[in-house]
Uridine phosphorylase
Amino acid sequence: MSTTNAWYLRCGRQDVAERAVLVGDRGRVAIAAELMQDVHVLGEDRGLTTATGTYRGTRLTVSAFGMGAPIAAVVMHELADLGVREFLRLGTVMTVGDTRLGELVVAHGAVRGESTSASYLPLEFPAVPDLPLTARVEAAARSGSRPVRTGIYGTFDGFYTQMTDSEPAVTSVRRGRDDLARRGVVATDMETSALFVVARALGVAAASLCLASVDGADQRRMEGTDRTDAEADLLRVGFDALAA
Ligand SMILES: O=P(O)(O)O[C@H]1O[C@H](CO)[C@@H](O)[C@H]1O
Ligand SMILES: O=c1cc[nH]c(=O)[nH]1
């Protein structure tokens, strides 16, 4: 791949910072842009939105991939080829076990329940974050006002078949969530394990910090200003960690 023009992100090495935030929802790029100065919105293709700006003197790139591990891996891969060295996923998760809505959850590892990471490294390889970056993330989270939880994520491809209580898989999904809780998993999402493994394969650092926005037990969702305020807190904490 050319290092001057990424296939899908449609930008060059000079357009991106060495530190990047990966979000799912494109709306979070707009919120992130409000936190930064000198913001440049970069090329947009297939709904992938990327912006680079400065936060407290540190240049940061924010990129939205949408949903799911395959496209998250494409975005990480292109940004790594362009020179990004540190990645922080800032997203949302569903609670497992004792995790409560509104908590910020720092990933200490992730169950590789998705298929994308196996195209980079075999399943024997663990999905673990970069530990120094994770320590920065945890410190920034603990200096904020929200409760912080740490632990293992479960990452899956099947939103309706592996994660939510939807027919026809509702019984196996509930059983699977109980099994994860018994083994100490604290949350589920669709990208974290893939990003950890892809980062290891490409020789870059990755960490993941997410807002618990859906209750796994009853599928209640954070809504309205509760949710938007919490997502703004998530972005501020994440930016503080990357700028530290
Ligand atoms: O809030 P984001 O970052 O999109 O993350 C979570 O939300 C989506 C599912 O609702 C998946 O992408 C999942 O990982
Ligand atoms: O239900 C949810 C909420 C956030 N992230 C997910 O992957 N699922």
About this structure: The chain has a mean pLDDT of 95. The chain has seven helices and nine strands. The two ends are 31 Å apart (CA to CA). Helices lie at 27-35, 69-81, 131-142, 159-163, 170-182, 192-202, 224-243.
